[in-house]
Amino acid sequence: MLPIANLKDLYQSTFEFFASRSPFFSFSAFSAEDSDSDSSFPLTPKDPTPRNLSPDEQSASLRDRLDAAERIDYSHNTSSCNPSFGASTAASTLYSMRREHDATKNELSKTKAEVARWEERYKTLEKTLKETRDLLKVRDKEIQELKERERHSPECHRHSTHIDCRRSCDPARQRSDSSQSRQIRLSADWSEIRDGGLSQANGNHRRNGSDLDNVSTVSEEERAQSRSLETFLNKIDLWSGAQIIQAVQDLNSEILQFAASATELCTFSKQRPNSAKVTQASSEVATRLGAALSRLLATRDHSQDPMLVQLALQGCISYCISRALSSFCIGYQSKANITLTQIYTHMFHSEPQPTSSRWRALTHKHIHELHPELNEYAINEMTETIFRWSLDIFLISGSTNPQPNPASRENFRARFGAQVKRISKAACRLAQVTKEEIMSANFEVIAADSGQSFDGQEMMDAFEDYRSSDGVVLCTTELGLRCSMSKATSDASASEESIDRRILLRPKVVLESVVEVIDPR
């Protein structure tokens, strides 16, 4: 067993060894207990053990303190002398930041390209809007001139009707004056013919009464005829030409929005299945829009740029609406529609404009009064036709969404049902306005036929800013408006020269050369 003095020497040498190896080593934790340490050991804290402790207990206390000092020194050396852990952490953080930076740069480049594309489209739409406004100003001026002309015509009609009424009333007045004069003469000569007998006087009185009844009946018939003439010679319009032009433009905007939304939502594949449904759909699309457009839809790849599919959708809906509005009454029986159209066409060429317009308005109005459900039926039928024709275009274009199965098609109908029904309602409302509320002229919604040669006076090229406008029409993307006025009188039938036709809004078409603009190779 070592003596106490040797233990103190060993303790002091051990403390000095660890203090020289680690400057952070100290016994400051024990400073509170060692405040009154011995002056002979200034660097050594006072031994906390009492003097009567055994040497084994003092050795155990010393070992505990040495272990604590080693742990503190090890933790310090690990954190300060081994920088590999901090370096690896910094490297991983830098790598993740670089990846985020690259991803942000890619997203920024895509956003810039998208912004550039939308700016180009905005410029095109702005230019189109400016041209449309200029055209609308010109058409408004023309319509005002037409109104000024028509304003004088009703005055002439009213003046002539008033003169005719006066002339027709003059015989009545003459008859009544003559009857009154005969009564005066009869009363004056009554004393002279009193002796002639009462029977002869009574017979004369009955004849005078019958003459008065005939005169009153003739005057009532003439008044009824005058009222009917005023009804059929009325030229008052409830809608102006500018309002009808705006209605057609709003309808074109609805068609464009649906075509763009549906095309953007759908996806296309290069591979197309060869099935009976695809063959039948191609044949039907060729019948509606022409063989050239059907062939382009079926053979070209639309997976990268479906612009041609969007144009075909616009052409399909425009053709559907123009065909429906060309009938006399939308949704009515086809045979009756053909007969009524023939009657109105013949009347338009042979009768004055107010007469044919009034007949058209009354007939159209009473058809809807006899069949109150006809308007709703027409809207539903047009909506169903638009969906069916649109899905045929998607089918032959290689669409993978919507697919030919019924579930996918029903999802497509549910997604765009409200939008397509809004188009159908606008078309039926436009038909009612042009058929019932316009008396001064005949307004027709027009579209150019597929395969027709381009005529700048009657139509407008949708891509005229990118190339020369010449060639054959591929399809009509926006509807136009034409106004026709008959100058026929009741005495002579109107010829083609006596019918004034003006295009108030030119239909917008796409030519076959559009493929060079959409996909130059």
What labels describe this entry?
three-stranded mixed sheet; 8 strands; 14 helices; 521 residues; three-stranded antiparallel sheet
Notes on the protein architecture:
The structure is a single chain. This protein has 521 residues and is mainly α. Helix content is 67%, strand content 7%. It is built from 14 helices and 8 strands. The protein has helices spanning 4-21, 55-81, 84-188, 190-193, 198-232, 241-265, 276-289, 291-299, 307-325, 334-350, 353-370, 374-396, 406-436, 514-518, and strands at residues 267-268, 399-401, 442-446, 460-461, 473-478, 480-486, 499-505, 508-511.
List the helices and strands and how they pair.
Elements: H1 4-21, H2 55-81, H3 84-188, H4 190-193, H5 198-232, H6 241-265, E1 267-268, H7 276-289, H8 291-299, H9 307-325, H10 334-350, H11 353-370, H12 374-396, E2 399-401, H13 406-436, E3 442-446, E4 460-461, E5 473-478, E6 480-486, E7 499-505, E8 508-511, H14 514-518
Parallel strand pairs: 4-8
Antiparallel strand pairs: 1-2, 3-6, 5-8, 6-7
Mean pLDDT: 76
The end-to-end span amounts to 104 Å
Over all CA atoms, what is the radius of gyration? 50 Å
The ordered H/E elements are HHHHHHEHHHHHHEHEEEEEEH
Shape: elongated
The strand line-up of the biggest sheet is 3-6-7
Uncertain segments are 23-51, 154-202
Number of strands: 8
Structural class: mainly alpha
Overall helicity: 55-70%
- Counted by DSSP, the helix tally is 14
Sheet-strand content, in percent, reads: 5-15%
Largest sheet: 3 strands, antiparallel
